Amino acid sequence: MEGMSPIFRRGERRAEKSVAPDRLVTLIGKPDCHLCEDAQEVVEKVCADLGVRWEKKDITQDEELHREYWEQIPVVLVDGAQHTFWRVDEGRLRKALKA
Question: What are the two backbone dihedrals, phi and then psi, of residue 52, each rounded to the nearest 5 degrees?
Fold first, then answer.
C-alpha cells in the first residue's frame, strides 16, 4: 500500500467510511406539520447521498406510534432506535449512519 498512488489510497479511505447497505432511517410524523416537512428534506438528502433506505410513517394512521411519539414529532429512528426528534441535524444524521 505504501507504493500505491495517493489517489487510490484516498478511495480506500472513502470505502472504509461507506454506509452498510442494510441501514434504515424511519421518519415518524404527520401531515401538515412544518417540522416534519423540514425533517423529511434532511432525511431525503442524507439518505440519497449515502445510499441508505428510508421510510415515512404517519402517527395519524398508527395508534401505537401516536401514543409513543405524539409529543415529539418529527421523530427519526436509525435502524429502529430513536436518533432524534423535532429538528434533524444533517451532520449528526450522517455521522450516525457512518458509524
Answer: -105, 140
